[in-house]
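Q: Got a minute? One more chain.
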Amino acid sequence: MTEPVMFGEGHAHIFMDGADYHASVEAHRNGPDERRIRAHLAEYQQRGISFVRDGGDHFGASFLARELAPEYGITYRTPGAALYKKGHYGRVAGEPFENLREYASLVRERKRQGADFIKIMTTGIMDFRTDHTLTSRALSEDEVFEMVRIAHEEGFRVMSHTNGARSCEIAAAAGVDSLEHGNFQDEQSLRVLAECGTLWVPTVVTVKNLIGCGRYSDRILERIWKRIGTQMRAARALGVPMALGSDAGACMVGHGSGILQEYQAFREIFPEDERLVPDLEEGQRRLEGFARE
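A: Always. Here it is, folded:
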């Protein structure tokens, strides 16, 4: 197949730069840094990338990016700040809620702000010091189901940051419209994703790009990377729909370059899959539909 094949970026964080998280936070602390945002948008434009779906921030950076994006020929979607429960993972890109009443109020606030969709955080992230644990405990099944119901009733699609087999199974059964990351799954959780038609955005270069950087053990990262390939092949065999998103802005994942690396990683995992490109194109069409009804 002729390379490269161009896709939009299905999962980005415009407020981060892929190199220095703390510097990025400081740059936006007193309001969105337009110069940085324009530089990231220019990276997408230079690569012919015309669609970006943001994963959220609490600085207003993604709202400003959406305002500026048409100048760069880009359609931009954002949830505003992601929503996470106090005491759980999510502060990096989100706004906290204490209970479901507060959550419902924040969903309505997103509607007033003009958010395109809702992003929820139901688990922590991978602990890169091990090859099997997460950094924070998961939300309960009842909480996740109610959070999705509330967002859908307000006309929003739901992007769900979720890892771990049982939590992925719960998110899919609750009706999330896309499941982000989805690490440490098993056959049961993948079957539920397939049965529910849940769109999975694996963001695999968040692991692959760390190998060799010296920040974590390459032995552990290689094990995680191998497991990712195994579970993605199992997911594809079961018919789980997938889409490309690199988590651009995360450590070692650049804006513009990240989604090209994500596509190449998919090609490495599925080297002989003739249906991969049209299926990923269908996944992207679903991501482009993440606009409030």
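A: DSSP finds eleven helices and nine strands in the chain.
Q: Perfect, thanks.
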